[in-house]
User: Fold this.
Amino acid sequence: MLEFLKSLRRNPEPADLPESAWRAALARLPLLQGLTGDEMARLRQLALRFLRDKQLTPAGGLELTDRMRLMIALQACLPILNLDADYYAGWVEVIVYPGQFVPEHEYTDEAGVVHVNRHAMAGEAWLQGPVVLSWADVAESGGTDGFNVVIHELTHKLDMLNGGADGFPPLHSDMSKQAWTRIFSAAYEDFCARVDRGEDTQLDPYATEHPGEFFAVMSEAFFEIPQVLKGCYPDVYGQLSAFYRQDPAARQAGI
Assistant:
């Protein structure tokens, strides 16, 4: 909490950013087409609060412009458009590299041998820690093709609100935990089987890595290619619609 309060002092809330920066950011984000005027106004305020509450830290020689900061903030705030900004409380930093980065993760196997994993990544979210993004991949997000590294990593943060990223975020009081578990478990098993058979799923096969990744990838699809997700897994779409309190399929159909 102390670090959170310090961040507020470091980053006083901007009254706004130049209109040219907003226009430039929105022009790069077809994902946001179809939002009503009221929704866009609320998203804008959420993005401004995000930029106040979070420290956006460039790394690896990257220079962050207002347009780049807004592109990150707008996509980050889309999942919480009908929720609350406090869903992103408890962490303060977004680190942005020019391209994919290679973190080192140590783990100990059953024999007690320590291994170090080094894999290039487009994004990463730490429990009670920062979100790390590749700008090159952020720049490719928001085009309604199903890939969105910002939404992917920020939905991991939502998943982590009640512990690790296990694909079971804290549900609203009017949602059934049993229904969520049954629907997501069945869809995950089906999707893994389809990927194993080499089927063209139209959804990112990375979702087979873990139930937490399945939730994040399905969330990407929910916002980016909602009609595809609704066609493949309508019950998953229904659960995500109840959780995010949005209906992107209807929104895109009205464009």
Q: What stands out?
A: Residues 102 and 120 are 4 Å apart (CA to CA). The domain at 1-145 is CATH 1.10.472.150 (Cyclin A; domain 1). The mean pLDDT is 89.
